Amino acid sequence: MQKLPSLAQMFNRLLTLPSVSATDPALDTGNKAVIEQLAQWCETLGFKVTLQPVGHNKLNLWAELGSGPGGLLLAGHADTVPFDEGRWNKNPLAMTEADGKWFGLGATDMKGFFALVLAALEGMDLSQLKAPLRIAATADEETSMEGARRLAEAAPFSPALTLVGEPTELKPIGRHKGHISAGIRITGKSGHSSDPGAGLNAMELMHGVLGDLIVLKQELAERYCDHHFAVPYPTLNLGHIHGGDNANRICGCCELHIDMRPLPGMSIPELEGLLKEKLSNVEKAHPGALQWQHLHEPCPAFVSPDGPWKDEVSRLLGQPVETANYATEAPFFASLGSEVLVLGPGSIRQAHQPDEFMAMDQIGPAMELVQGMVKRLCLT
Ligand SMILES: CC(=O)N[C@@H](CCCN)C(=O)O
Ligand SMILES: [Zn+2]
Ligand SMILES: [Zn+2]
């Protein structure tokens, strides 16, 4: 029988294949190389692989051993966030082992998960499956979640339990917030700075918008509360701003990117309505100067469907099912009719950061978890 490379080799190989997702097309590399590599390894283990195109140079993968309903789905995304090489001390595009950690872009979020899953499965006898075992890897989780949306529409299966292997330090998450990101652009009128009346300063108008949004941020924190969450209210973050080009030119254009995180039970139109209301102050004073749009489709909040498996996993791990403030692909996997837990090795604190790493002490327990879940859902 053909063999997979070692765990460390697979981990390293996945990091060397860039798969950056970004709303800026100049930074986006597509995820095809990673998906094709995963497809090859899944086939080595005897899985039947289906690839689904998701736009240019992007693919989803699902791999199946066995068929029919039920069983276990091990799911995750094959893309990473963009990186700023100058802020890394380690090579982002290869695995470096140091201080009991495996460093690299995607080490924990979340290419490393796939290497661990494959290594864990290679160590098992999967010839007598009683229920199907599946692996899914998606495109564009870090931006639009388009991959998971398409997979949920097309995948012809309904697992009993899906584990989304995002970095939760191996604690099961059964509920999380949604995610909305918006770009707000003010178009003023440029002119020579010596005569303020010669233009309309977009940065000054944006100053008004920023003030209104900071008020909205406080109102959200006062008005809504869900005690399941460590941050119990919907958040609003001012994330990126760019405006103007020269000290002696009136700023003609200014753009702001924000995100908002709705609690489960809050509708996305409800939160958008509050945003629109705040933006209307500047719109009224300067008709036509403000435009806003979603940077990508909003991602819904998540509450796992009921069923027996969440509690069983919780008992097995000796950990309560918890909540997360961030968003994942879990709601799209839940739409397949599956119970879903977000549960994987590594920490969200290292995700999206320079010198991202997976602590090596997560590796053994993560592989045992995968093997334990496969035994419980597919072999008994
Ligand atoms: C886990 C994580 O960082 N998820 C991302 C998803 C963004 C999707 N638009 C977040 O919560 O910001
Ligand atoms: Zn992730
Ligand atoms: Zn991420």
TrEMBL record:
Residues 176-284 form the Peptidase M20 dimerisation domain. InterPro entries: AcOrn-deacetyl, ArgE/DapE_CS, Bact_exopeptidase_dim_dom, Peptidase_M20, Peptidase_M20_dimer, Peptidase_M20A. Keywords: Amino-acid biosynthesis, Arginine biosynthesis, Cobalt, Cytoplasm, Hydrolase, Metal-binding, Zinc. SUPFAM superfamilies: Bacterial exopeptidase dimerisation domain, Zn-dependent exopeptidases. It is found in: Cytoplasm. Binds 2 Zn(2+) or Co(2+) ions per subunit. Its EC number is 3.5.1.16. HAMAP family: ArgE. Catalyzes the hydrolysis of the amide bond of N(2)-acetylated L-amino acids. Cleaves the acetyl group from N-acetyl-L-ornithine to form L-ornithine, an intermediate in L-arginine biosynthesis pathway, and a branchpoint in the synthesis of polyamines. Belongs to the peptidase M20A family. ArgE subfamily. This is Acetylornithine deacetylase. It comes from Gallaecimonas pentaromativorans. The lineage of its organism: Bacteria, Pseudomonadati, Pseudomonadota, Gammaproteobacteria, Enterobacterales. The gene is argE.
